[in-house]
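Continuing the batch. This is chain 6 of the set; chains 1 through 5 are on the previous pages. Same settings as before, nothing changed between runs. Recording input and output for traceability.
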Amino acid sequence: MQALSFAVPGGLATVVVLALAFTAIVAWGIRETRSLPAPRRRALRALRVVTALLAFACAVQPRFVHETIQEIEGRLVVLLDGSRSMTIRRGGESRWEEAMAALEGWRGDADAAELVRFGSATTPIGWDQLGDQEPRDDESRLRAALEELASQDDLGAVLIVGDGTGPSDEGDPELDGLKVHALPVGGERAMRDDAIAELQADPVAFLRGEARVRVVVRSLGEGGTIPVSLVREGSVVKEAMVDVAEDGEAEVTFSFTPRRLGRAIYHVRIPRAEDDAVPENNERSFLVRVTRDRLRVLLVAGHPTWDVRFLRSFLEADPSIDLISFFILRTTSDLTMASPDELALIPFPTDELFREHLGSFDVLLFQDFDFGPYQMASYLPRIRDYVRRGGSFAMVGGERSFGPGGYAGTPIAEILPVTLPPVGTPSERQLALGAFQPVVEPELANHPLVALSPDPSASAAHWARLAPLEGANRVEGAKEGTQILLSHPRVRDLSGAPLPVLTVGESGEGRVLALGVDSSWRWGMTSAGASGDASGHERFWDRTLRWLARDPALDPARITTDRERYGPGGRIEVGGWLRNDAYQPVEGELRVEVESATGEVVGRVPVEVGRGGAIEATARAPLEPGAHRVVARREGDDEPLATEPFVVEAGGDELAEPRPDPERLSRWAEESGGQVFASGDRLPPLESLDATRRRSTGTVEVRPFSGWVALVLTLGLIALELFARRRWGLR
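Output for chain 6:
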C-alpha cells in the first residue's frame, strides 16, 4: 500500500497555493520570451518549466509512504454481551433471549469459533454453558474487551453479539487489523423511558452542614414535567418538578442537612409511567458518610508550662481542629481583694463543660491538671461514662497528673490504661527525675503513634535523633489488654518491667491514652536546635489526636470497595489491609464475605495477605437492591476484622442509558471490513465468516527532494536560467 503526502506546513492548502504561484511564474516566463528566436525561446521556456517544477518539489517536500500489509488467517471469537442492559425487553422478548436464539442456531457450528463473554471483564465460556449464563454484569466494557482480544496475534476476527451500549466516554478501539463482524440485538434506538440518567453526590457530609446531590433526568419519548424526590428512610426530604423536553434531559440539585453521625442511605426517585420500558432506572441510591467538619478538642491545663504552650500552639494552628482550652490560674478558694465581677479571670466552668457540652467533644485532654481544687469530683463519673460510650480521653504527665493529681481510686483511674500508685504515696516516689531517651517497644514499632516513617529503620533513626525527655510519672504498671508504646530505659514499675511512658488502650467503646511526661515539647524546639528537624512534636501529636478520634486511615484493619454503588450482581473490587492490634499482618486463613441487608452471607472469597497486610479480592454484589456490606473475617471467627458498606441499585449506570447502539457496531464492522447481520434474518454459518486479519508489518518513507542534491540542482538551474536570459538580452 502506497500513499502520497506533503511535509510543508499547512498541508494540501499550502500545496495548492504554491502550485498556483509557480504556475504564474512559468506563465510570466513564457510571456517574456515571445520576442526571442524560436530556438532560444524554446530553450528558455523548457528551462523555466524544469526549474519551477524542481523548486516546487523542494518547497512542498512530497513524501511517498509504502506500507507492507500482512494477511493472517486467524481464529474467530464470538463476543457475547453479558451486561444487564441485555435484560431490557422489546415487546415480549429481551435482548438476551434474542441473542440466545441466534447462538442456538450456531451451536452445531461451535467448532468454528470460540465463545467469550464480556461485561466488566472478558471470560471464556463453553458453548455447552450457554444455558447457565445470565446477563448480570454491571458494566459493558466493549472497547476494553475488543482491545484485549486484538492483542492476541493468532486471532483474525470477532463477531459481536450485543446491543452496542457502553460508557458515554468510551471511544473507538485500537483493533490492529482485527476484523469485526456484528449481530446487533435490541432493535432501533427509539423507545419510551423516563430515567435518572446521572447522579453525583458528596460522598462525605458534615453534621448539620449542607450537602448536595446533582440529578440528571432523561426522558426518551414524550417528555413533560416529572416530579423528582429525595428520600431517606421512607420519608421525602426534598421534592422538585423538572421540565424535560422530548428525548431530552434536565438537571436538578438537591441540598440536604444530615442530622446524625454515621452512614446514611438516600434515594432519588421519579414516578413510573405505564409504558416505561425500563422501570429499574427510575430510582438511584447513594451512600453518605456523615462526620464532623472539625475535630472538637477540649484541653484543660493545670498551669502554664512549656509543654502546654507547645501543645496548645499546635492545636490552634491546625484549621481542622476546633479547640476549647482552659488554663487554671485560680480556684474558687483563692482569696482576692476584689469582686469576681471585677476580675479578668473567670472560675473554671465545670458545670457547663462537663454536664452540658461534654458529649460534643471528640477528644478530652487533661494536661498536668489536678481536679481537686476545682470541685470536680462529682463530674469524674460523667467523664468515665463519656469515654465508655465512645469518647476519647488522654492524660498528659506532670506534677499535677496521675498519682500526684489525686486520681487514684477515682472514676478516671478506672478508664486510664495504667494502674496508679495508691493514695498516700509520697509525691517524690511518684516522679522519676532525670533526662532519658524513651524506648520504642519492638513488637509495636508499626503502631501509627510511634511509626514516624513507613520504613522501620528510618523510624528508628528518627527516634534516635529526637531530644531526650525530662522526668516521668511513676505508675504501678500497664493494665491488661493495653499497649505500651514507649517505656523508660532505666526506671522500673512494680512488676519489674520497664516503666510505661506512653500507653494506649480502650475503655468500653472509647479510646484512652496515658503519656507520663510533660516534656514532649522537646521533640520540637530542642530537636530542631540539635538536628534542624522540628517535626517530631507535631507529627506525634497529629497521629495521637487522629488515633484517639478513630481516623479510619489509622485503623489496623480496613477494607474498601472500588465504588459505593453497584447494580445487582455487580463486580466488586475489594482492597485494603488486614493487620492485628500490633499493626502486623493478620495470620491464618482469611476470607472476604458479602453480606446482604439482612445479614445473610451471599458471597465468600478467600484472600491472602501481602506485604504490610495488603489484600485484594473480587466479589459479586447481591441481587437485591439496598444497603449491604463487605466483611473481612478470619476462618472460624465470626467477629469481623473490618467492614465496608455499599449500595446496590436496581438500575445504576448500566441501565441509565437503555437505548441500543447498533450504529456503533455497524461503524466498527464497516471500518474493519467485516459484516453486519440482522438477528431476524437467516444467519450464515460461522465457518463462512471472513477471519482474515490485515496487519501492518511496517512502513517505508521516501522523500526524494529533501536532500542537498535537489537543493543544489535547483539553485544551479536558477543560475543557468539567469545567465541565459542576460546572454540573450532579457533581464
